[in-house]
Each structure stands twice: as structure tokens, then as C-alpha cells.
Backbone:
């Protein structure tokens, strides 16, 4: 009976974590470039039950009763890097990154493209949020003040005037003078990216992260005055949240039933009249 308590409890914990994942997705449905998380569930190993203390055999030469499941857990949460829709903002510092043809790795996973930025500790991070701005010193930054990096890893000083950004990420001023080029990094194994908050991703893989600029096997374009929406499907997310809630409640009722059975066992079974 205690195994049943643990199984129901594990189911409740798994659905609670699933609900937290879906809630975070829904909260970021309007965050530019946000990539929805998806959870992977896995069951604990099943236990084989055998009859003990009896010579009776259910089948010839075997006293196996059957298998007992021992619960489920959320193994991992991984971002879905599917391209989001694009909408027009008319802001010259907003840039949407549109992916085209991309290589596919040995594991069958498609590569993904990202902007590169420098965080407050001087470390390189990756993002799909193209909601950029220009700081007081004329540097191109994201909305959190992180410097946007160029194709040579340098900070991009674009001045304080109007700028034009072409499809390759090249930045020009009013005099059509080239000020720099926004780097577009290609992550071949995006499953190695870890979310750090504020739209930033940390790469923990062993492979290098090359630039997609000048790579003939990659097609992409940048659109000035546009932003990429999050790829969260709000209707599907709401449906999955309701399903997670119903499953949580079902496990809760099972747990309560076991609790009532244990209460009767303790208070009534074996009672001496």
C-alpha cells in the first residue's frame, strides 16, 4: 500500500512541475523571441512481484505475480527552437532573425541561429530577442543593457543617429557608411543551450559555435523594424494546463483513498473487542 502512496505522490509532483513549466510559457507568450519549454516524462523502473511463502505456481515453473509501476517523474525540460511569427514594430533598432536552410546534426537535430551578446560579466550569451536599443555611448544593446556583438566579437558602436540594417546584418549610417555587422551564431546542438533568464541562453556544449555569416550551407535574413514573437501556442498551453490539473487531482484522490485505507487499518483492523 505504501508503494501506491509513493506512486500517487510522484504523479502529483510531476504534474506540479509540468504546471510550472506551462505557466512560465504562458507568462512569456508576448516576450519577443521566447522559446517555449517542453517537458520529458519518464517512469521509474517497474518492480517484479513474486509470490512468497507458497508452493502454488501460477504458471509452470514460475511464481511471478506481475509488475508494479513505481511512478513517473519529469526527466528534463528543453526549449523548442521552432521559428516564431514575425510582426512589424516600425522601430529602427528592432531586428527579427529569420531562419532558412540549416544543417542537421548526426543526432537528427536541426541547428539554430542566434544573436550574440555580452552579459554583465563579459561572457558571451545567445538570444533570439531582437528588441535592441542604443545606449548613451552609442553602443547597440539589448533591452537589459547587454552589448550586441559583431561578427568579429566586437561591441557595435553605431552612434546616436538613424541607422539602416540590411538582410545580412550590416549596419549603415545616414551617409551609407558601414558601421559594423551584427553577428549571427549557428548552434549545431541547441539542446546544449541553458536558459539564464531575460531571454539569454548559455551554451554548455563541447563544440565551437561558428558564425553563420559567410556560410554557404546556411540561409537567413534580418528584417529591420520587425520582431519575432514567442513560439508559445497559447490555446494549446491552456489545454495542457487543464490536463495537468485534472491529472494532479486524479493522483490526489488516489492518495486520499490510500490515506483513508491506512487510517482504517490502524484504527480498526486487529481491534480487540
Residues:
Amino acid at each position: 500500500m505504501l508503494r501506491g502512496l509513493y506512486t500517487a505522490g510522484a504523479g502529483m509532483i510531476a504534474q506540479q512541475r509540468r504546471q510550472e513549466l506551462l505557466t512560465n510559457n504562458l507568462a512569456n507568450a508576448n516576450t519577443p523571441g521566447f522559446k517555449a519549454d517542453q517537458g520529458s516524462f519518464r517512469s521509474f523502473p517497474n518492480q517484479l512481484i513474486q509470490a512468497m511463502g507458497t508452493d502454488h505456481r501460477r504458471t509452470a515453473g514460475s511464481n511471478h505475480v506481475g509488475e508494479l509501476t513505481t511512478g513517473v517523474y519529469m526527466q528534463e525540460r528543453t526549449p523548442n527552437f521552432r521559428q516564431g511569427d514575425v510582426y512589424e514594430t516600425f522601430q529602427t533598432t528592432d531586428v527579427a532573425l529569420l531562419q532558412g536552410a540549416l544543417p542537421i546534426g548526426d543526432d537528427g537535430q536541426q541547428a539554430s541561429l542566434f544573436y550574440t551578446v555580452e552579459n554583465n560579466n563579459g561572457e558571451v550569451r545567445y538570444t533570439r530577442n531582437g528588441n535592441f536599443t542604443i545606449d548613451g555611448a552609442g553602443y547597440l544593446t539589448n533591452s537589459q543593457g547587454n552589448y550586441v556583438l559583431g561578427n568579429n566579437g566586437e561591441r557595435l558602436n553605431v552612434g546616436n543617429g538613424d541607422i539602416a540594417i540590411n538582410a545580412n546584418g550590416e549596419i549603415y549610417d545616414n551617409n551609407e557608411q558601414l558601421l559594423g555587422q551584427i553577428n549571427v551564431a549557428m548552434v549545431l546542438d541547441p539542446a546544449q543551450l541553458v536558459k539564464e533568464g531575460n531571454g539569454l541562453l548559455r551554451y554548455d556544449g563541447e563544440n565551437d559555435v561558428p558564425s553563420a555569416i559567410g556560410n554557404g550551407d546556411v540561409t537567413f535574413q534580418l528584417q529591420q523594424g520587425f520582431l519575432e514573437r514567442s513560439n508559445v501556442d497559447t490555446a494549446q498551453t491552456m489545454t495542457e494546463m487543464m490536463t495537468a490539473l485534472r491529472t494532479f487531482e486524479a493522483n490526489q484522490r488516489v492518495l486520499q483513498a490510500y490515506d483513508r485505507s491506512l487510517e482504517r487499518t490502524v484504527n480498526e483492523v486487529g481491534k480487540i473487542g
